[in-house]
Write the structure tokens for this entry.
Amino acid sequence: MIIATTSGPFTHKANTVQKVMTTVLLALLPATAFDIYLFGWPALLLFAVTIGSCVAIEALCLSLVDRPAKITLSDNSAVLTGWLMASSLPPWSPWWIGLLGAVFAIGLAKHAFGGLGQNVFNPAMVGRTVLLVSFPVIMTSWVAPHPLFSAGSPGVSDAIAITFGGHMPDTVSAASALGYVKTELSRGIPVNQSMTQLPDLMDMALGYRAGSMGETSAILILLGGLFLLYKRIISWHIPVGVIVTLFLMGTVFHYFDPTRFTPGTFHVMSGATFLGAFFIATDYVTSPVSKSGQLVFAVGVGLLAWLIRTFAGYPEGMAFAVLLMNAVTPIIDQYTRPRVFGRSRKGEPLPLSKEKP
Amino acid sequence: MKLFQIRGGIHPDYRKEQTSEKPIVAMPLPAALYIPLQQHIGAPAEALVAEGDLVKKGQMIARSQGAVSAPQHAPTSGRIAAVAEIPAPHPSGLPQLTIILEPDGKDEWTVLPSPIADPFTVAAQAIHARVAESGIVGMGGAAFPSAVKLTLGTQKKLDTLLLNGAECEPYLTCDDRVMREYTEEVIDGARIMAHALGAPKIIIGIEQNKPQAIAIMTKAVASIAGVEVVAVPVQYPMGSERHLVQALTGRETPARKLTADLGVVVHNVATARAVHHAVRFGRPLLSRVVTVSGGAIRDPRNVEVTIGTKVSDLVEFCGGFAVRPERLVNGGPMMGQPLPSLDVPVVKGMSGILALTAEEINDSPTNPCIRCGTCVTICPCGLSPVEMSSFIRKDNLEIAAKLGVMDCVSCGSCSWVCPSHIPLVHYFNYAKGMLNDQDRERRKNDRVKTLVEARTIRIEKAAEAKKAALAAKKTAAATESIPAAPAPTAEEKVNA
């Protein structure tokens, strides 16, 4: 005799949380591998430390609340948070940046709210933002590309000194494109003049430039994003919404005042636009559940990112924009529920006469 | 024919190939038949026989009670062994009054009602009556008494009979086989039903994954005016009444209304065949085609089974279990009910018996919801399962009701797609049960309240009337100057 305990269905799609998370990790791999190659051993060390810290803190938090650590850890969500946060860090930052970020991302943003699925804010972006606000110098110390095995690239022992010994070579600092334009503008140099000093858009797209550890190559991130779309892990609504909004804002304002506003293509190609649009803003937990809600959310992210980049003190605004929109996600969810079958938007049963042909 | 989009839906593994090419085989009569008095939605039938009675095949052994009910008939000739309680084919496995019949092996027919020679010229009421006395219920799974559904034409203006051959549940192929092997019977039954409904048009909707059925049916209706076979997209739950109506006519049934309010009545193809038998031959519903399938069944097939056969006998007929099944299901894997055991009878609404392996079920422990929103995207009813389930978890049923949990059709798409394997439908079924209970309770209280109020008013009125009568009497007495009764003396007062 088999006693039934739950209702049907008695068949299930072959998918799990772990599968979802692992697919996202796979999609991130090309862009991250390229940047680890680009910035050498220190980047790899920081990457490992950040992810390791996230997993360790997840395990610690789980043990504190007496939840089975093994099953939850195997869903790979902590690895993904660590990976995304590492992608947003300057590649030669010291080890404790990764650790501290993990404390804020996993401990504060995720587990203080109740763990996987309960957090209001994107953990990786909380980690990054806390670090940026607390350690602005380290968090904006970009290095120019030092590809692995090239002449100027630090060896393993140098890398250990950089990551664990705090020996950041002074000479290697380079500004990110967004930062450079912003600094120049504050010195009175018009945007269209300072932009001539930047690598051209093609270089920016390929990713051979200074920047965070996983976000320099727009093309490789786009590749990963398309893979996620193909695998139906994400839909087009959020990435397209974010990118189109940023592009339109940039293009329209640049058209009216090219000395003050950077063009749309520049906004799309620089900073964390692609990583943010495909991997950060699309985080399931912290974005709206309905497709129309996701569009509203995406336009909000694009708009805020442009506003912050253009008018606020920080050159990059993606993380702030995502966090701000995370805060309104519950409200968006409430106002973008689908229309129920047989009912009007207000929830009233449809009138009969109108339906009859 | 132009088709209309329906919202959401999923594409599960259909796994119909296990039985789709297996012709219907008739199962020999078992040693005993168990005929539950309730095999339908509505009031249970009332037994007309008692232990020791001899019955003939087709004889009515339980009559319908009330407006929504259906009678039961003896599937063969034999002796009534008992009218007793045995476990029902219901997840609860609760006992249910059942007529137990021991076949005598002669399979002798009773005197059947005479065939209706030309059903298209008789009054609709004659068809309704015949379908009602034949014990026919919806054979797609819902088991709603068909005669009640056929009378909708007398109350509403109908334009279309929609014959549901979508069979969108995985595994099930009984409707497919019935359409392929009993094409003429199905079509004739449908035409009789359309006549009974007063609907000029018949649309037969079949999912595109049944190309042979579509071809055979299309060919068969080619020369019949007003009957059309339409291939509908393979998209679960296309077979849901309201969704099929929307896909084929573009009409969206308003909440708390019937498709009949839009001029469309939906019947299952197997029901049409049963109507054909009842009207053309006077035969009541005594058997049905059941798909016996699933990875644990040794020889999956489509079987014409006598109503009342034990599921265990049916499984034995299909070679028994090759491996130990993880789950037994009555119906399809999406909306079917778990069976408490094999020791229950086959009933009229049973379209499939599935014995599924753990691999087929693909269950895994529930994880926290990651708010992926897929359930919102695929919900064919436009609901937000993620939100409803979290409120129901907190027993906040009022908000769940506001979010539309009562509009959920329990199709199971959300549970099927959930990466966290959250049993969403289980939550919704729980909420629906509780809300229905609350509603019943509230109605009961309201009724009690009105009764109490009425009683109070009645008592007050009576008291007033008494007082008035007394006063009238007094005045009358005063005028007639009859002395009033003497006041009690002090002694009397003490004694009192």
